[in-house]
Amino acid sequence: MNRSDFYYELPQELIAQEPLERRDASRLMVLDKHSGKTEHRHFYDIIDMIEPGDTLILNDTKVLPARLYGTKEDTGGAIEFLLLNKHSLDTWEVILRPGRRAKPGARFVFGNGELKAEILEVINDGNRLVRFEYEGIFENVLDKLGEMPLPPYITKKLEDKDRYQTVYAKHTGSAAAPTAGLHFTPELLEKIKAKGINIGYVTLHVGLGTFRPVKADEITDHKMHSEYYVLPPETAELINKTKAAGKRVIAVGTTATRTLETAGFNGLPLKPSSGWTDIFIYPGKELHVIDSLITNFHLPESTLIMLVSAMAGRENVLNAYKEAVKEKYRFFSFGDAMFITDIKE
């Protein structure tokens, strides 16, 4: 299966540059995963399509304001840091721009000296391992000095940092938001609970590799990035009970999907687990855990559109995307949503 099999034409003006004023007012395309039939709704209608006893699984990761602008301590030259992965208490893997000449021992300053950094070593892909120096709590310093690491296709400045966080974000560690969850409001979640629908949480810290293009012509030659995940005991138990009762497990987003399918690789019942996952889901790969999926519209030829195609079939997905373009849906992180499920007649 080739990368080009997942290409579609997308007019530039359909790439959403900012979130809607109301989170759950986005449009919602409902796609039948078997027939390819579609319906057009709004996201707040999702409650009408989920039944009591079904379980929603949300990724409660929290995005770091991981982009920092500073200067080189000795020359004053401008530098941009992008935090990727935490290695230990104050040590992080970062991308530097410009960074080609930044060698071990080089030091940088951010803000009015509230944060300083020293390069320890050069590691994978030219990234740097960096040790930070600061007073107080690192997350507080970062919240003051850092900016949200918006995807490269969003060129407009985000005025409210919270709009690139889900309302249930809890565990800090992501370099990008699990964007399918951005559509939920506290009020909608309360209505969902009141209807008798279960809500469970997993954590997967989204890495910037989620935006890494597939360069291999044959998709099976593509190497996935690794991301850290946690499936807590209470969520594993909830999913097992849902399955035993014959109800649906509905993943909110590709990150929740990757977490559950990593944990369920050896089949059910699920057991609590945590660790690093580089699972690559594409057509032909069997999904063991999830029954339905809430997701956004993804980039052409990306691993994310390949995952969605594993759920609903490549032709169904590409036909739905073609329809979404025709109907002028909003695409990508701040765009509209899709619910892949069985449409009841």
If you had to describe this structure to a student in words, what would you say it looks like?
The protein has 345 residues and is an alpha/beta fold. It folds into two domains: 243 residues, QueA-like; 79 residues, QueA-like (Thrombin, subunit H), CATH 2.40.10. It is built from seven helices and 17 strands. The radius of gyration is 21 Å and the shape is globular. It starts with 26 loop residues before the first strand and ends with a strand. The mean pLDDT is 95.
Low-confidence stretches: none
SSE succession = EEHEEEEEEEEHEHEEHEHEEHHE
Number of domains: 2
Largest beta-sheet details: 9 strands, mixed
Using brief descriptors, characterize the structure shown.
2 domains; QueA-like; 345 residues; 7 helices; Thrombin, subunit H; six-stranded antiparallel barrel; alpha/beta
Question: Brief description of this entry?
Answer:
The strands form three sheets. This protein has a nine-stranded mixed β-sheet. The chain has a six-stranded antiparallel barrel with strand order 5-6-7-10-9-8.
